[in-house]
Specification:
binds iron/sulfur cluster, Rossmann fold, 12 strands
Length: about 325
């Protein structure tokens, strides 16, 4: 059952240089208890999508110009700021890249943990303290009683991120959005945080949207993956679909550009070129200027969704029946 459905979402930003179309018509579904990873290179619109779901796009300069975000049937796009304040933290929580900026350096961890709980749930001080202790134990922080009275600077980077995760989960939200949660951490701590996500999901059943550019993280925790490029989703499917049966040239390029321990290849293959200027996005397929298989139609008409298998969708003319026919014709002429 879907608890979140993003339909045809468009987000743009007005700047002195013109309007940037950061998210251009994306569709996403999140099922109860699953982990959906949104992957793509910097600037592809992943974080804007996450912020749009939380209704945290600064307005102005940003604006959700079209589409709907249905949380259990309720369209978040239409909700007042007051309603959103209740939904944020209680129903949908978000954790950010840098744990230090997410914590207030002047307040103890205990105060910060209990703050959200007191705001959203009718609990006594003692119940809030007990819940805060339980959360610190859940995220694997030793000596929770002592830690509750300490300040953020007394925690290491990894421990701070655990505290931020505890804060996000304390009200038992149904959705946790994690925006590059491991990027600011070193590699061994990254692995611990990823394991923590897996354990938390098993124990609490929270649905997770994981925003990342790290395919290693995705391979470990995701159930389904949506690949974004230039503000659009260009391929989505299960982890198996994307890692073993990817069809979009950009997804294939991404997979070839990360180191793999199971394949003996001397060199990684980068994707040539740069993403398009979103002040004036291409008329056809956004990847066409970099795509080695681009056909004439690709430069003129945006590709439409093709279902390869149940739940495996791709936006590429190569996979469309008409595109395949065109390729065959070109091959015959040659
Ligand atoms: Fe390449 Fe055309 Fe597919 Fe775009 S639609 S990825 S340009 S083949």
């Amino acid at each position: 059952m879907n608890i979140l459905e993003v339909n045809h979402l468009h987000v743009s930003f007005s700047t002195y240089g013109g309007t940037v179309e950061a998210v251009r018509g994306i569709n996403l579904q999140l099922e109860k208890g699953e982990t959906l990873a949104i992957v793509g290179e910097s600037g592809c619109g992943k974080s804007v999508t996450a912020n749009a779901i939380m209704r945290l796009i600064p307005q102005p300069p940003g604006r959700i110009t079209d589409g709907s975000i249905l949380f259990k049937g309720q369209n978040l796009v239409d909700q007042s700021e007051r309603t959103m304040r209740h939904i944020r933290g209680r129903d949908i929580s978000m954790i950010f890249q840098d744990p230090m900026t997410a914590l207030n350096p002047t307040l103890t961890i205990g105060t910060q943990l209990m703050e959200g709980l007191k705001q959203h749930k009718a609990v006594s001080k003692e119940e809030a303290r007990q819940k805060a202790l339980d959360m610190l134990r859940l995220v694997g922080i030793p000596n929770p009683k002592e830690r509750l009275t300490q300040y953020p600077h007394q925690f290491s980077g990894g421990m701070r991120q655990r505290v931020v995760i505890a804060m996000a989960l304390i009200c038992e939200p149904e959705i946790l959005i994690a925006d590059e949660p491991t990027t600011a951490l070193d590699v061994t701590i990254q692995a611990q945080i990823i394991e923590l996500f897996e354990r938390i999901q098993r124990e609490t059943g929270v649905a997770i949207i994981l925003i990342t550019h790290d395919l290693g993280v995705v391979a470990k925790v995701a159930d389904r993956i949506a690949v974004m490029y230039a503000g659009q989703i260009i391929e989505k499917g299960t982890k198996r679909d994307i890692f073993y049966h990817a069809e979009h040239p950009y997804t294939l390029g991404l997979l070839k550009s990360v180191p793999r321990l199971d394949i003996k290849e001397a060199r990684l293959t980068p994707i040539d070129g740069t993403p398009p200027d979103l002040f004036s996005p291409p008329k056809g397929c956004s990847f066409a200027p970099r795509c080695p298989y681009a056909m004439e139609v690709c430069h003129e008409v945006p590709p439409i969704q093709t279902e390869l298998e149940q739940n495996h969708h791709v936006y590429c003319w190569l996979q469309d029946k008409r595109g395949k026919a065109l390729m065959a014709q070109t091959a015959t002429k040659k």
